[in-house]
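pasting for the record
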Amino acid sequence: MQEQYSLLFHQLSRLTTRRCVAVLNAHRHVASTVATIMVAMVLSAFVVNKVQSFEQAIPSQSEASDSDDPFEESDATGDSSNEPIREEVFHSFMPRATAKTKPTFASAEEDIEAYREGSQAYEEGKYGDAIKKWEPLAKKGDLFALWQLANMYRLGNGVKRDHNKAFRYYQKVASQHRSVGRYTGRTRITVGALVQLARYYERGLKKAGVRKNIRKAIEIYKLTGSHFGHKGAQFSLGRIYLKGPGGVSKSVHRGLRWLNLSAEKYHARAQAMLGDVYWGGRGVRRNRVRGLMWYMLAQEYANPQNEQSIIERFHELYGATDDEERQQAQAMVNQWHARISEKGKWQ
Protein backbone atom coordinates (compact mmCIF):
# COMPACT_ATOMS: atom_id res chain seq x y z
CA MET A 1 0.00 0.00 0.00
CA GLN A 2 2.84 2.40 0.76
CA GLU A 3 4.29 1.85 -2.70
CA GLN A 4 0.86 2.51 -4.24
CA TYR A 5 0.55 5.84 -2.42
CA SER A 6 4.08 6.76 -3.50
CA LEU A 7 3.27 6.04 -7.16
CA LEU A 8 0.00 7.92 -6.90
CA PHE A 9 1.66 10.96 -5.38
CA HIS A 10 4.39 10.91 -8.05
CA GLN A 11 1.76 10.95 -10.81
CA LEU A 12 -0.40 13.66 -9.22
CA SER A 13 2.56 15.99 -8.69
CA ARG A 14 2.83 16.45 -12.45
CA LEU A 15 -0.85 16.91 -13.33
CA THR A 16 -3.57 19.56 -13.37
CA THR A 17 -6.78 19.33 -11.32
CA ARG A 18 -8.75 17.53 -14.02
CA ARG A 19 -5.96 15.03 -14.64
CA CYS A 20 -5.50 14.55 -10.87
CA VAL A 21 -9.14 13.48 -10.56
CA ALA A 22 -8.71 11.05 -13.45
CA VAL A 23 -5.62 9.48 -11.90
CA LEU A 24 -7.24 9.20 -8.48
CA ASN A 25 -10.32 7.58 -9.97
CA ALA A 26 -8.01 4.99 -11.48
CA HIS A 27 -6.82 4.23 -7.94
CA ARG A 28 -10.19 3.74 -6.24
CA HIS A 29 -8.68 0.94 -4.18
CA VAL A 30 -6.67 3.51 -2.21
CA ALA A 31 -9.15 6.38 -1.96
CA SER A 32 -12.93 6.90 -1.82
CA THR A 33 -14.72 9.05 -4.40
CA VAL A 34 -15.31 11.99 -2.05
CA ALA A 35 -11.75 11.91 -0.75
CA THR A 36 -10.54 11.66 -4.32
CA ILE A 37 -12.00 15.03 -5.32
CA MET A 38 -10.90 16.79 -2.13
CA VAL A 39 -7.33 15.48 -2.33
CA ALA A 40 -7.14 16.35 -6.03
CA MET A 41 -8.08 19.98 -5.36
CA VAL A 42 -5.56 20.34 -2.56
CA LEU A 43 -2.74 18.65 -4.45
CA SER A 44 -3.42 20.63 -7.62
CA ALA A 45 -3.25 23.95 -5.78
CA PHE A 46 -0.06 22.85 -4.05
CA VAL A 47 1.55 21.72 -7.31
CA VAL A 48 0.63 24.97 -9.10
CA ASN A 49 2.32 26.98 -6.36
CA LYS A 50 5.45 24.81 -6.59
CA VAL A 51 5.59 25.08 -10.38
CA GLN A 52 5.25 28.86 -10.26
CA SER A 53 8.01 28.98 -7.65
CA PHE A 54 10.21 26.84 -9.86
CA GLU A 55 9.65 28.92 -13.00
CA GLN A 56 10.67 32.04 -11.14
CA ALA A 57 13.82 30.29 -9.98
CA ILE A 58 15.04 29.25 -13.43
CA PRO A 59 16.87 32.00 -15.33
CA SER A 60 16.71 32.31 -19.12
CA GLN A 61 18.85 30.47 -21.66
CA SER A 62 19.29 30.97 -25.35
CA GLU A 63 18.79 28.22 -27.91
CA ALA A 64 21.38 25.66 -28.72
CA SER A 65 24.29 26.84 -30.75
CA ASP A 66 23.58 27.02 -34.44
CA SER A 67 27.24 26.96 -35.34
CA ASP A 68 28.07 24.36 -37.94
CA ASP A 69 31.39 23.72 -36.22
CA PRO A 70 31.39 22.17 -32.73
CA PHE A 71 35.02 23.21 -32.33
CA GLU A 72 34.37 26.92 -32.73
CA GLU A 73 34.52 29.17 -29.72
CA SER A 74 31.36 31.06 -30.58
CA ASP A 75 27.90 30.31 -31.86
CA ALA A 76 26.65 31.05 -35.32
CA THR A 77 23.51 32.73 -34.10
CA GLY A 78 25.50 35.04 -31.91
CA ASP A 79 23.73 33.74 -28.82
CA SER A 80 25.93 32.11 -26.24
CA SER A 81 24.76 28.56 -25.66
CA ASN A 82 25.67 28.89 -22.04
CA GLU A 83 23.83 32.03 -21.06
CA PRO A 84 21.46 31.60 -18.12
CA ILE A 85 18.23 29.83 -19.02
CA ARG A 86 14.55 30.34 -18.42
CA GLU A 87 12.46 27.30 -19.20
CA GLU A 88 8.70 26.85 -19.26
CA VAL A 89 8.81 23.35 -17.76
CA PHE A 90 10.37 21.93 -14.64
CA HIS A 91 13.21 19.44 -14.67
CA SER A 92 13.89 18.33 -11.12
CA PHE A 93 10.60 19.44 -9.60
CA MET A 94 9.67 15.86 -8.78
CA PRO A 95 12.52 13.33 -8.69
CA ARG A 96 11.74 9.84 -9.92
CA ALA A 97 10.63 7.59 -7.09
CA THR A 98 12.88 4.64 -6.30
CA ALA A 99 12.89 1.85 -3.77
CA LYS A 100 15.29 3.79 -1.56
CA THR A 101 14.24 7.40 -2.12
CA LYS A 102 10.78 8.91 -2.29
CA PRO A 103 9.96 12.14 -4.18
CA THR A 104 9.90 15.14 -1.88
CA PHE A 105 9.32 18.81 -2.58
CA ALA A 106 12.16 19.70 -0.24
CA SER A 107 14.79 17.99 -2.37
CA ALA A 108 13.32 19.60 -5.49
CA GLU A 109 13.55 23.02 -3.87
CA GLU A 110 17.17 22.35 -2.96
CA ASP A 111 17.92 21.45 -6.59
CA ILE A 112 16.20 24.59 -7.81
CA GLU A 113 18.18 26.72 -5.41
CA ALA A 114 21.44 25.00 -6.36
CA TYR A 115 20.76 25.56 -10.04
CA ARG A 116 19.88 29.20 -9.43
CA GLU A 117 23.06 29.73 -7.42
CA GLY A 118 25.06 28.14 -10.23
CA SER A 119 23.46 30.45 -12.78
CA GLN A 120 24.17 33.46 -10.61
CA ALA A 121 27.78 32.41 -10.21
CA TYR A 122 28.13 31.95 -13.97
CA GLU A 123 26.70 35.40 -14.66
CA GLU A 124 29.22 36.88 -12.23
CA GLY A 125 32.07 35.09 -13.97
CA LYS A 126 32.61 32.66 -11.10
CA TYR A 127 32.73 29.63 -13.37
CA GLY A 128 34.32 27.33 -10.80
CA ASP A 129 31.47 27.99 -8.38
CA ALA A 130 28.93 27.40 -11.16
CA ILE A 131 30.46 24.03 -11.95
CA LYS A 132 30.44 23.06 -8.26
CA LYS A 133 26.70 23.75 -8.15
CA TRP A 134 25.84 22.12 -11.47
CA GLU A 135 27.96 18.97 -11.35
CA PRO A 136 26.04 17.36 -8.44
CA LEU A 137 22.80 18.08 -10.27
CA ALA A 138 24.25 16.62 -13.47
CA LYS A 139 25.10 13.41 -11.60
CA LYS A 140 21.41 13.16 -10.70
CA GLY A 141 20.58 13.42 -14.40
CA ASP A 142 19.38 17.02 -14.23
CA LEU A 143 18.76 17.99 -17.86
CA PHE A 144 19.55 21.70 -17.56
CA ALA A 145 22.72 21.19 -15.55
CA LEU A 146 23.99 18.64 -18.07
CA TRP A 147 23.20 21.07 -20.89
CA GLN A 148 25.01 23.95 -19.24
CA LEU A 149 28.11 21.89 -18.52
CA ALA A 150 28.19 20.49 -22.05
CA ASN A 151 28.17 23.99 -23.50
CA MET A 152 30.80 25.22 -21.06
CA TYR A 153 33.24 22.47 -21.98
CA ARG A 154 32.54 22.72 -25.72
CA LEU A 155 33.03 26.48 -25.85
CA GLY A 156 35.67 26.69 -23.12
CA ASN A 157 33.61 29.15 -21.12
CA GLY A 158 35.43 29.46 -17.81
CA VAL A 159 37.02 26.03 -18.20
CA LYS A 160 39.61 24.39 -20.40
CA ARG A 161 37.97 23.26 -23.60
CA ASP A 162 37.26 19.56 -23.42
CA HIS A 163 35.29 18.15 -26.35
CA ASN A 164 35.43 14.70 -24.81
CA LYS A 165 33.50 15.85 -21.74
CA ALA A 166 31.20 17.99 -23.86
CA PHE A 167 30.36 15.01 -26.06
CA ARG A 168 29.57 12.80 -23.05
CA TYR A 169 27.35 15.45 -21.50
CA TYR A 170 25.50 15.98 -24.79
CA GLN A 171 24.99 12.22 -25.00
CA LYS A 172 23.31 12.21 -21.58
CA VAL A 173 21.05 15.10 -22.57
CA ALA A 174 20.15 13.56 -25.93
CA SER A 175 19.41 10.21 -24.28
CA GLN A 176 16.39 11.84 -22.62
CA HIS A 177 14.95 12.90 -25.97
CA ARG A 178 12.39 10.09 -26.19
CA SER A 179 11.09 10.80 -22.72
CA VAL A 180 9.87 14.27 -23.64
CA GLY A 181 6.49 14.89 -25.22
CA ARG A 182 5.21 18.17 -26.61
CA TYR A 183 7.68 20.80 -27.80
CA THR A 184 8.81 22.45 -24.59
CA GLY A 185 12.04 23.79 -23.20
CA ARG A 186 13.05 20.21 -22.41
CA THR A 187 12.48 19.18 -26.02
CA ARG A 188 14.46 22.16 -27.30
CA ILE A 189 17.43 21.21 -25.15
CA THR A 190 17.41 17.54 -26.14
CA VAL A 191 17.07 18.50 -29.81
CA GLY A 192 19.95 20.94 -29.41
CA ALA A 193 22.07 18.18 -27.89
CA LEU A 194 21.27 15.88 -30.81
CA VAL A 195 22.43 18.56 -33.24
CA GLN A 196 25.69 18.99 -31.34
CA LEU A 197 26.25 15.22 -31.43
CA ALA A 198 25.63 15.26 -35.18
CA ARG A 199 28.33 17.90 -35.58
CA TYR A 200 30.77 15.74 -33.70
CA TYR A 201 29.88 12.76 -35.90
CA GLU A 202 30.33 14.93 -38.97
CA ARG A 203 33.86 15.90 -37.93
CA GLY A 204 34.88 12.94 -35.81
CA LEU A 205 36.36 13.12 -32.32
CA LYS A 206 39.29 10.77 -31.74
CA LYS A 207 39.75 11.53 -28.04
CA ALA A 208 36.16 10.52 -27.35
CA GLY A 209 36.41 7.49 -29.61
CA VAL A 210 33.93 9.01 -32.05
CA ARG A 211 34.63 8.05 -35.64
CA LYS A 212 33.72 10.37 -38.45
CA ASN A 213 30.31 9.28 -39.69
CA ILE A 214 28.78 11.75 -42.11
CA ARG A 215 25.76 9.57 -42.85
CA LYS A 216 24.87 9.27 -39.18
CA ALA A 217 25.21 13.03 -38.89
CA ILE A 218 22.84 13.50 -41.82
CA GLU A 219 20.27 11.20 -40.21
CA ILE A 220 20.28 13.29 -37.05
CA TYR A 221 20.22 16.56 -39.00
CA LYS A 222 17.19 15.34 -40.96
CA LEU A 223 15.35 14.32 -37.80
CA THR A 224 15.97 17.60 -36.03
CA GLY A 225 15.69 19.74 -39.16
CA SER A 226 12.50 18.18 -40.52
CA HIS A 227 10.52 17.22 -37.43
CA PHE A 228 11.60 20.05 -35.13
CA GLY A 229 12.63 22.70 -37.67
CA HIS A 230 16.03 23.27 -36.07
CA LYS A 231 17.61 26.00 -38.19
CA GLY A 232 21.17 24.94 -37.38
CA ALA A 233 20.45 21.40 -38.55
CA GLN A 234 18.81 22.74 -41.70
CA PHE A 235 21.86 24.90 -42.41
CA SER A 236 24.20 21.93 -41.91
CA LEU A 237 22.18 19.84 -44.36
CA GLY A 238 22.26 22.63 -46.92
CA ARG A 239 26.00 22.98 -46.57
CA ILE A 240 26.57 19.22 -46.86
CA TYR A 241 24.45 18.79 -49.98
CA LEU A 242 26.10 21.75 -51.69
CA LYS A 243 29.59 20.39 -51.03
CA GLY A 244 28.95 16.62 -51.14
CA PRO A 245 31.62 15.49 -48.63
CA GLY A 246 32.41 11.92 -47.58
CA GLY A 247 30.71 10.19 -50.49
CA VAL A 248 27.46 12.12 -50.08
CA SER A 249 25.83 12.84 -53.43
CA LYS A 250 26.11 16.52 -54.23
CA SER A 251 22.73 18.13 -54.86
CA VAL A 252 22.35 21.87 -55.40
CA HIS A 253 18.57 21.50 -55.38
CA ARG A 254 18.54 19.85 -51.94
CA GLY A 255 21.17 22.20 -50.63
CA LEU A 256 19.21 25.31 -51.62
CA ARG A 257 16.01 23.84 -50.17
CA TRP A 258 17.55 23.29 -46.73
CA LEU A 259 19.39 26.62 -46.79
CA ASN A 260 16.18 28.49 -47.61
CA LEU A 261 14.37 26.81 -44.72
CA SER A 262 17.15 27.88 -42.37
CA ALA A 263 17.36 31.38 -43.87
CA GLU A 264 13.65 31.88 -43.25
CA LYS A 265 14.44 31.48 -39.56
CA TYR A 266 16.97 34.32 -39.83
CA HIS A 267 20.06 32.10 -39.76
CA ALA A 268 22.79 34.49 -40.88
CA ARG A 269 25.18 31.83 -42.13
CA ALA A 270 22.50 30.21 -44.26
CA GLN A 271 21.66 33.59 -45.75
CA ALA A 272 25.33 34.31 -46.40
CA MET A 273 25.86 30.94 -48.07
CA LEU A 274 22.87 31.59 -50.34
CA GLY A 275 24.42 34.94 -51.16
CA ASP A 276 27.68 33.29 -52.19
CA VAL A 277 25.84 30.69 -54.27
CA TYR A 278 24.02 33.30 -56.35
CA TRP A 279 26.84 35.82 -56.46
CA GLY A 280 29.30 33.25 -57.76
CA GLY A 281 26.87 31.16 -59.79
CA ARG A 282 27.71 27.96 -57.91
CA GLY A 283 25.37 25.43 -59.48
CA VAL A 284 22.86 28.13 -60.41
CA ARG A 285 22.70 30.97 -62.88
CA ARG A 286 24.78 33.85 -61.56
CA ASN A 287 22.66 36.64 -60.10
CA ARG A 288 24.54 39.51 -58.48
CA VAL A 289 21.38 41.25 -57.30
CA ARG A 290 20.05 38.15 -55.54
CA GLY A 291 23.48 37.50 -54.06
CA LEU A 292 23.59 41.02 -52.63
CA MET A 293 20.01 40.66 -51.40
CA TRP A 294 20.93 37.61 -49.32
CA TYR A 295 23.98 39.36 -47.89
CA MET A 296 21.88 42.38 -46.96
CA LEU A 297 19.79 40.02 -44.86
CA ALA A 298 22.81 38.13 -43.51
CA GLN A 299 24.58 41.24 -42.26
CA GLU A 300 21.32 42.34 -40.64
CA TYR A 301 21.10 39.18 -38.53
CA ALA A 302 24.80 38.39 -38.10
CA ASN A 303 26.37 38.75 -34.67
CA PRO A 304 29.20 41.29 -34.90
CA GLN A 305 31.20 39.48 -32.22
CA ASN A 306 31.59 36.13 -33.94
CA GLU A 307 30.26 36.59 -37.46
CA GLN A 308 32.29 39.59 -38.48
CA SER A 309 33.34 37.85 -41.71
CA ILE A 310 29.72 37.98 -42.92
CA ILE A 311 29.58 41.73 -42.37
CA GLU A 312 32.91 42.23 -44.12
CA ARG A 313 31.76 40.13 -47.07
CA PHE A 314 28.59 42.23 -47.32
CA HIS A 315 30.60 45.44 -47.60
CA GLU A 316 32.76 43.79 -50.24
CA LEU A 317 29.73 42.87 -52.39
CA TYR A 318 28.03 46.19 -51.74
CA GLY A 319 31.09 48.04 -52.96
CA ALA A 320 31.21 45.90 -56.11
CA THR A 321 27.66 46.81 -57.19
CA ASP A 322 26.16 49.97 -58.66
CA ASP A 323 23.21 52.01 -57.36
CA GLU A 324 20.68 50.26 -59.58
CA GLU A 325 21.70 46.82 -58.37
CA ARG A 326 21.60 47.99 -54.76
CA GLN A 327 18.10 49.39 -55.19
CA GLN A 328 16.89 46.17 -56.78
CA ALA A 329 18.46 44.12 -53.99
CA GLN A 330 16.84 46.31 -51.35
CA ALA A 331 13.46 45.91 -53.03
CA MET A 332 13.93 42.13 -52.91
CA VAL A 333 14.82 42.34 -49.22
CA ASN A 334 11.60 44.26 -48.54
CA GLN A 335 9.60 41.65 -50.45
CA TRP A 336 11.31 38.85 -48.51
CA HIS A 337 10.46 40.46 -45.16
CA ALA A 338 6.83 40.92 -46.23
CA ARG A 339 6.56 37.30 -47.36
CA ILE A 340 8.10 35.88 -44.19
CA SER A 341 5.92 38.13 -42.05
CA GLU A 342 2.80 36.98 -43.87
CA LYS A 343 3.88 33.36 -43.67
CA GLY A 344 4.40 33.68 -39.92
CA LYS A 345 0.78 34.74 -39.43
CA TRP A 346 -0.45 31.37 -40.65
CA GLN A 347 1.98 29.18 -38.73
